[in-house]
């Protein structure tokens, strides 16, 4: 694909070298002439009890998501690392129960498939995409198209709230996907964001911004056009897939992978910078957007409350794993300079460089216990599905901590018995920026490897105020009688500035193999089922507690399963 993309009315991208090489390139944005104004205001507590919410829950029609979209025709890389014990910086972990690492670990069940069909007119959706944020012992979880608010002990403060009703999208003529939730301690505001497509031709993002620190209060609702009509590679319009949010002192950011709705081909990443002051005031504003030759470009989120990069009148960092798009063993690091000027007539420059970490590669499907569930049996399936390992991308969130970007991704390896499995690679990248260049260097890094026969999927990172944190993931192994053998949730504690490792603690114990409709081909051997396209992790800025949400298979006798799937989410709390 061409690395130089053009925007209507914009300069050519000032990129002269491949992103796999060291560089410092500046990208000229197109400043949208469209005025963005809140389309409505919504009170969440009232909406939860409203007839509009009941109608949306009763009649929305979720469906099986499309396969994960890859930017190249040959899809994900398939190279596999050497045996884990032969790789430097590898910690092969022992499995243990919670509370074995000197911390208090509890948790509660979030959304689960059997909970949703009752309010979704019998329709089921797989896999669960998860958004998560917490503040003052209140946890907001957004799974697929349903939002729910909990106390930190798992007590529900609301019933199911339809994202269709929240964003004012007609469930008969609109499509929602990939929700996220953030709480910004600086402004004391909640941000709820999701991809939107409508039959009327809108492609972009819905964004609800709370008017106070109360998540049950009123929200301004915005519709952010992805500007695909102005991007030549979109051929008229694009699907802004897999959006990833972040924020700094001055702005809220959304990155998405742009795929042409006409050709289906990948175009580039679209980066949208929205002035935060206008967002929280419910004002009209102009946003800046950039076209970036990357895939899954992740905006940074401060690990500690209000710990923004303030140099250069505000700097926001971004990170991306470049193996998917370019086949290189590099990380792309970007810096948006002078973020205080976002939305003004002088667009801030976007600068980039690369850094080479430890080796990482594409994921492999994970094997679960061969315990065919009732839905598979009804089809004549003879094996349980494998679980899709997903992108080897830092899509579980990048945390900014003391001038370092901390992130994790899933990568393939072979275990001591020669079996292909997925482990976690984690990185801390030191970053700094001036008005004309961004620099990056590798800090601490390593691999987290489970015992033989196990895989770790969809890692997500929570970093606390003192640098202590946890990596959450799905744990799955070959033997369902062992801890974490059935698809379960687990965490690994770490010290952000020093190391990751210790005991892999199983927090949400799985109770069966995956028995979802995406994993079956019909009678005979099963295929590869969709697993959580991403998990989420966050820190309550008041209590300092960490919350990590990942997919697992709950106990059907406690959390009744749906007809066509049996997934659930588990929210782990770490004190």
List the helices and strands and how they pair.
Layout: E1 30-31, E2 40-43, H1 44-48, H2 51-59, E3 90-92, E4 95-97, E5 105-112, E6 130-135, E7 138-143, E8 146-151, E9 161-162, H3 163-167, E10 174-184, E11 189-198, E12 203-210, E13 218-225, E14 238-247, E15 251-260, E16 266-275, H4 276-281, E17 288-292, E18 298-302, E19 315-321, H5 323-326, E20 331-337, E21 350-355, H6 374-379, E22 386-387, E23 398-401, E24 404-414, E25 420-433, E26 438-449, E27 455-463, E28 468-476, E29 488-495, E30 499-500, E31 504-508, E32 528-529, E33 536-539, E34 546-552, E35 568-574
Parallel strand pairs: 3-26, 4-31, 18-23, 22-32
Antiparallel strand pairs: 1-17, 2-13, 5-35, 6-7, 7-8, 8-9, 10-11, 11-12, 12-13, 14-15, 15-16, 16-17, 18-19, 19-20, 20-21, 23-24, 24-25, 25-26, 27-28, 28-29, 29-30, 29-31, 33-34, 34-35
Q: Write down how many β-strands occur, each being a DSSP E stretch of 2 or more residues.
A: 35
Secondary structure category: mainly beta
CATH class: Mainly Beta
- Using the coordinates shown, work out and report the CATH topology: Methylamine Dehydrogenase, Chain H
Summed over residues and divided by their number, the pLDDT gives a mean of 87
The biggest beta sheet reads: 9 strands, mixed
Shape assignment: globular
Through-space gap between termini: 47 Å
Report the C-alpha radius of gyration, rounded: 22 Å
Major sheet: arrangement of strands: 3-26-25-24-23-18-19-20-21
- Per CATH, which architecture? 7 Propeller
Helical fraction equals under 10%
Helix count equals 6
Strand content: 35-45%
Poorly predicted sequence stretches spanning 5 or more consecutive residues: 1-24
How many domains?
Answer: 1
């Amino acid at each position: 694909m061409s690395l130089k993309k053009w925007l209507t009315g914009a300069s050519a991208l000032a990129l002269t070298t491949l992103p796999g090489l060291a560089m410092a390139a500046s990208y000229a944005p197109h400043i949208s002439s469209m005025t963005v104004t809140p389309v409505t205001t919504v009170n969440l507590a009232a909406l939860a009890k409203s007839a509009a919410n009941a109608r949306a829950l009763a009649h929305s029609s979720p469906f099986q998501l499309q396969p994960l979209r890859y930017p190249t025709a040959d899809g994900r890389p398939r190279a596999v690392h050497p045996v884990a014990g032969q790789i430097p910086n590898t910690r092969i972990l022992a499995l243990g129960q919670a509370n074995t690492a000197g911390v208090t670990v509890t948790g509660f069940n979030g959304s689960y498939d059997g909970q949703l069909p009752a309010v979704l007119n019998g329709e089921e959706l797989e896999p669960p995409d998860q958004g998560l944020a917490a503040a003052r012992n209140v946890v907001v979880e957004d799974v697929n198209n349903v939002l729910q608010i909990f106390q930190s002990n798992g007590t529900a403060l609301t019933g199911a709230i339809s994202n269709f009703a929240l964003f004012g999208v007609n469930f008969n003529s609109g499509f929602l996907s990939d929700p996220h939730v953030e709480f910004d301690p600086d402004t004391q505001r909640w941000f709820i964001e999701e991809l939107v497509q409508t039959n009327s031709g809108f492609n972009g993002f819905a964004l609800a911004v709370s008017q106070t620190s109360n998540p049950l209060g009123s929200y301004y609702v915005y519709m952010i056009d992805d500007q695909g009509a102005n991007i030549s590679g979109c051929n008229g319009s694009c699907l802004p897939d897999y959006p990833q949010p972040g924020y700094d002192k001055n702005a809220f950011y959304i990155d998405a992978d742009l795929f042409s709705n006409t050709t289906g081909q990948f175009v580039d990443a679209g980066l949208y910078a929205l002035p935060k002051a206008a967002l929280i005031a419910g004002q009209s504003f102009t946003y800046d957007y950039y076209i970036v030759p990357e895939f899954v470009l992740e905006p940074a989120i401060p690990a500690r409350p209000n710990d923004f990069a303030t140099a250069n009148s505000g700097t926001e960092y971004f990170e991306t794993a470049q193996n998917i798009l370019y086949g290189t063993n590099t990380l792309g690091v970007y810096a948006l300079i002078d973020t205080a000027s976002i939305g003004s007539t002088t667009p801030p420059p976007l600068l980039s460089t690369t850094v080479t970490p430890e080796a990482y590669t594409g994921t492999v499907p994970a094997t679960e216990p061969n315990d065919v569930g009732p839905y598979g049996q009804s089809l004549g399936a003879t094996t349980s599905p494998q679980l899709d390992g997903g992108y080897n991308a830092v899509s579980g969130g990048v945390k900014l901590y003391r001038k370092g970007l901390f992130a994790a991704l899933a990568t393939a390896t072979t275990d001591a018995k020669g079996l292909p499995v997925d482990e976690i690679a984690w990185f801390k990248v030191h970053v700094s920026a001036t008005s004309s260049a961004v620099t990056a260097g590798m800090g601490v890094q390593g691999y987290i490897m489970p015992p033989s026969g196990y895989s770790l999927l969809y890692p997500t990172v929570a970093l606390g105020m003192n640098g202590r944190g946890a990596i959450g993931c799905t744990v799955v192994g070959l033997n369902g009688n062992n801890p974490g053998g059935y698809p379960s949730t687990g965490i690994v504690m770490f010290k952000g500035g020093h190391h990751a490792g210790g005991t892999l603690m199983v927090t949400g114990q799985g109770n069966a193999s995956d028995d979802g409709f995406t994993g079956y081909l019909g009678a005979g051997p099963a295929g590869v089922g969709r697993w959580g396209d991403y998990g989420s992790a966050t820190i309550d800025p008041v209590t300092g507690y960490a919350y990590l949400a990942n997919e697992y298979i709950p106990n059907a006798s406690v959390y009744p399963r749906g007809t066509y799937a049996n997934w659930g989410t588990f929210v782990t709390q770490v004190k």
